[in-house]
Design goal:
The chain has helices spanning 2-12, 14-26, 35-48, 108-129, 148-154, 207-221, 260-281, 300-312, 320-330, 335-345, 376-382, 402-408, 411-432, 437-450, and strands at residues 51-53, 63-69, 73-79, 133-140, 163-165, 167-170, 174-176, 182-191, 195-196, 230-237, 244-245, 248-257, 284-293, 352-353, 356-357, 361-363, 388-391. It is of the alpha/beta class and 469 residues long. It folds into two domains: 2-180 and 296-450, Zn peptidases (Aminopeptidase, 3-Layer(aba) Sandwich), CATH 3.40.630.10; 182-293, Alpha-Beta Plaits. The strands form five sheets. The chain has a five-stranded mixed β-sheet with strand order 1-2-4-3-5, with helices on both faces. Helix 4 links the parallel strand 3 and strand 4. The longest helix is centred in the first third of the chain and has 22 residues, at 108-129. The radius of gyration is 23 Å and the shape is globular. The chain starts with a helix and ends in a 19-residue tail after the last helix. The mean pLDDT is 95.
């Protein structure tokens, strides 16, 4: 009965939920700037009777909604931020809605409202059936840049969770059993002495020289780190005028590796490179840490339960216009990409309908680490966390692209969002009622995966950054 009622509540509120998601898509906001998005969600949840904390002290655009009391405590993760420079209209050709503006090319408007919808529908059923337990919705800012969840984790907001539901819009239905890469984002600020570059260059000490020497050293370092690691960088400050020896310059670096301890080891060596560059140029250097993400730990026990519910959740009915948009977006990619995706997913071409794979897959395993990073990894070190993806775009569409922004702004994508809500709410209902045994298995699995290691929160002196990447 409970699962039927969850479906009923989602259908009852479908119009409002889809309108909310597409309104957020039309008003994208950057990391730690998502005040409007968070306010809309907070007011909606308050009207439904949830206990809402907004803003949350550790992250100014975060919110936490809660319903119920006692054991178990199940969380729903949402995200709020958009990407800079990814503005796009809902059409099958590249045309920004605002030139150079933000755009939801990662679908966080769907992610947030979908998790909110799952929480809200389950809250209604818990109220009807007097089900014990606690559920929470977390509206998390700045996932794309500065890791809002890491600030929330440092303040202990996830510490009492028994597990956490997490999803992401995608071109496929799946539970991801791969790890994500650990990540650290930092800036190195070099300080030298300004001088006239033509008249008195010998009086200057170039901070830009130090930046360039650091980059050379870092490029030599690449050969001597593990193959799975990555170093990314760009110069954020190269001086002010060509005829002035730069007294200040800065470079931003990101380090990725499969495990957080590997990132830390590489960062330590990178800091030595920066110090060497400063020594060679007679400058000084300061390191500013902007974000640190742990690698994501998948959880098989929790994923198996969610996969069962995903497999039983019916597909939405698309309109002719929605299908035509998906077809047109798919046509912007080369035919060879279809073959590549089919191979990756283990799917034959004839399984694809309008570039949509209509069956769920289990994606990868714990021995595989993907290149991307997410602050969901930090939550997964604290409590068992599922990583669900639900179809909201054609299978060929890549995230962080204009095609993704266009697809995720469509009514078809919003239908996928409410489907994700239903899968998560069904799964959480199982955990609250008949499948509490899964929680014990999931916690034991997490303990084994951590292998005696504990979660290390970000430093206490780290503050949210508000500049754009």
């Amino acid at each position: 009965m409970g699962k039927d009622r969850i479906h009923f509540y989602i259908e009852q509120h479908r119009a409002a939920l889809e309108t909310m998601a597409l309104d957020i898509w039309a008003h994208p906001e950057g990391g730690f700037q998502e005040k409007r998005t968070a306010q809309i969600q907070a007011e909606y949840l308050k009207r439904l009777g949830a206990q809402v904390s907004f803003p949350v002290a550790c992250a100014p655009t975060a919110l936490v909604a809660q319903y119920g009391s006692g054991f178990p405590v199940v969380g729903f993760l949402g995200e709020l931020d958009a990407l800079p420079g990814q503005s796009q209209k809902v059409c099958a050709y590249q045309e920004p809605a605002e030139k150079g503006g933000y755009g939801h090319a990662c679908g966080h408007h769907l992610l947030g409202v979908g998790s909110l919808a799952g929480f809200a529908a389950l809250m209604e059923v818990m109220r009807e059936e007097k089900i014990p337990g606690t559920i929470r919705y977390y509206g998390c800012p700045a996932e794309e840049s500065f890791g809002g969840k890491t600030f929330m984790a440092r303040d202990g907001l996830f510490d009492d969770l028994d597990c956490c539901m997490n999803w992401h819009p995608s071109g496929e239905d799946s539970v991801a059993l791969t790890q994500s890469s650990a990540f650290e984002l930092m800036e190195f600020h070099f300080h030298g002495v300004e001088a006239h570059a033509a008249m008195n260059p010998h009086m200057g000490r170039s901070a830009l020289d130090a930046v360039e020497l650091m980059n050379v050293g870092a490029n030599y370092l690449r050969e001597h780190i593990i193959p799975a690691a990555r170093l990314h960088y760009f110069i954020t400050d190269g001086g002010r005028a060509v005829n002035v020896v730069p007294g200040n310059a800065a470079v931003r670096y990101a380090v990725r590796a499969p495990q957080i301890h590997q990132v830390q080891e590489i960062v330590e060596r990178l800091v030595s490179v920066a110090q060497g560059a400063a020594m060679m140029t007679g400058t000084t250097v300061e390191k500013k840490v902007m974000s640190i993400y742990h690698n994501r730990l998948p959880n098989n026990a929790l994923s198996d339960l969610v996969y069962e519910n995903l497999a039983h959740c019916p597909w939405p009915k698309y309109t002719t216009e929605e299908l035509e948009l998906f077809r047109a977006l798919s046509a912007t990619y080369s035919p060879s990409l279809v073959e590549e995706r089919c191979k990756t997913l283990g799917a034959a071409k004839d399984e694809l309908w309008n570039s949509l794979l209509r069956r769920p897959i289990r994606k990868g395993n714990k021995s595989i680490t993907v290149g991307g990073s997410t602050d969901v990894g930090d939550v997964s070190w604290i409590t068992p966390t599922v990583n669900l993806t639900v179809t909201c775009c054609p299978i060929m569409v890549d995230g962080h692209s204009w095609q993704a922004c266009a697809a995720y702004g469509s009514t078809a994508a919003a239908k996928g969002m409410t489907r994700a809500a239903q899968v998560m709410a069904w799964s959480a209902y199982d955990l609250l009622t008949t499948r509490q045994d899964v929680l014990g298995k999931a916690k034991k699995e997490l303990q084994q995966d951590r292998n005696g290691r504990s979660y290390t929160p970000i430093p206490q002196d780290m503050l949210p950054s508000f500049d754009n990447l």
